[in-house]
Write a structure and sequence with these properties.
This protein is α/β, with parallel strands linked by helices. It has a single domain (8-90), classed as Toll/interleukin-1 receptor homology (TIR) domain (Rossmann fold, 3-Layer(aba) Sandwich). Helix content is 43%, strand content 15%. The protein contains 3 helices and 3 strands. A 3-stranded parallel β-sheet has the order 2-1-3, sandwiched between helices. Helix 2 runs parallel beside helix 3.
């Protein structure tokens, strides 16, 4: 058994307002309803911290990562870096 202390059960990687307002908000609602702790980039903890540091720490301290690929996911300069970080800590 690992002694690692997970801060979140799930980290969800996604891009875009298009899926945030529909699919992701419903996913977060269902995770919350099921009592599953997930990371939300709208979390105000450690406000003022660089978003990159906040996201990468959340990735490393989540038990599971879920990447939601949408039509615009790969168009971003940021999200491929997030995906690489997920793969680093899961590999």
């Amino acid at each position: 058994m690992s002694s690692h202390q997970w801060k979140h059960e799930v980290f969800v990687s996604f891009r875009g307002k298009d899926i945030r307002k529909n699919f992701i908000s419903q996913l977060f609602h269902e995770l919350n309803h099921a009592g599953i702790n997930y990371f939300s980039d709208e979390d105000r903890e450690n406000d003022g911290e660089e978003i990159k540091d906040k996201l990468f720490r959340a990735i490393w301290h989540a038990s599971f990562a879920l990447a939601m690929f949408s039509a615009n996911y790969a168009d971003s300069k940021w999200y491929p870096n997030e995906l690489v970080e997920i793969l680093k800590c899961r590999g």
